[in-house]
Amino acid sequence: MAALLSTVALTGCASFSPDGGMNVVATVASETINKDVVSIRTTDDAERAKAAVQGLLRRALTVDTAVQIALLNNRGLQAAYNELALAEAEFVEESLPPNPTFAISRIAGNGGYEIERQVVGDILALATLPFRSEIARQRFQKAQLRAAEETLRLAAEVRRAYYRAVGANELVVLLTDAKSTAESTAQLALKLGETGSLNKLDQAREQVFYAEITADLATLRQDATSSRERLIRLLGLWDGDLGFRLPQKLPALPRQPLSLPRIEVDAVAHRIDLQMARIELGLLAKSLKLTEATRFVTLLDLAGIDKKTREPEGAPFRERGFDIAFQIPIFDGGEVRVRQAAETYNQAFNRLTEKAVDVRSEARDAFRVYRSTYDIAGHYQREVLPLREIISDEMKLRFSSMQVDVFALLTEARQRIAALRAAIEAKRDFWLAQSELKTAVNGGGSSSESPRQPRASATAQAGGGGH
Question: Is the Cβ–Cβ distance between 388 and 416 less than 8 Å?
């Protein structure tokens, strides 16, 4: 026992870290998304985080400030950091040697008595302590990566919610202007119908456009409100903080798209979920070795005994000795535990291989979607909208010279509105695709949103009505 205790002393026991294991999370957040994280444990921590959030909310919200606010203020993320602190506590507990058990008994009768004291120690637990401590250390490392993954997942969700909210705002502004035009057209059509200058079919065409765009605007306003509320939940804002300002337009497209020739290699190297799967495989390998080493002996207790006895006649005398208890592997030789550990290891290896294949495919697909959405959004900005502007200017000239009537001009205006709406949606899809690309490379989970629906062409959206 003295030799085993000396080994334990040399191995050392783990202690709590000053930051609760947040160093890995902070490093990942800084290097991956260039943001700060904090685990709020005291009132001072909460006050500092609140002051930082209030300072960020005073300015118009950008996607970067939104992510930073969420990382400081989202209580679900703080709960994930609490899980990390609990994992550290388990790691420290697993690295401690087992406490010895002290037992005392006293039996008396007929003038005599017997007092027995025992100190019992789990020798098997002491012998395997270095192995179990290393396994617990790797579990704690996995918990650190899990907290980092939750941080990246929240950042990705905030980026999606932000771009959806700002895109919805831009569409609301566009359709609000379009509704004014449609309302004027409907009123004009009604007056012309009263004078007999416009038949009932053409009146209905102009009025149905106004009715449809009114309903469409109401839907978009509801979508903008829901998107803002989704962002509020992710930012963890309370009633007094809800007056933050969102931009009315999405950011402009970057001049050049990202070029990522090594995206598959980068994804395999940086994905947090892959790193956790690798640690899990290493854990199971060590557990398998420990199970094989202890397959025959699962119980080994050593007790030191001190016994004092006094008979009714005679002087008391003392006896000392020891007691060893171990399990005899007659029926269970540990084959079941070894087989379970081996199959669990093989299962983890296969899942790691599957995950690596999935990660490479997800990275390739995310980059293709990113480039495709960039090209589509750029096509609208470079080709479709300038051509629509030329058509609009030419129609105004022809209207001024009375070559076309007002309804032809309004029909062209409807088509231009449809093109502008499609351009806004294309730009929004690009920024969402860029967010998914970051997630595919760094980790953080897939989007919980429903798959993006194909966008109707500008011509199809403007197809209803016309003179």
Answer: yes
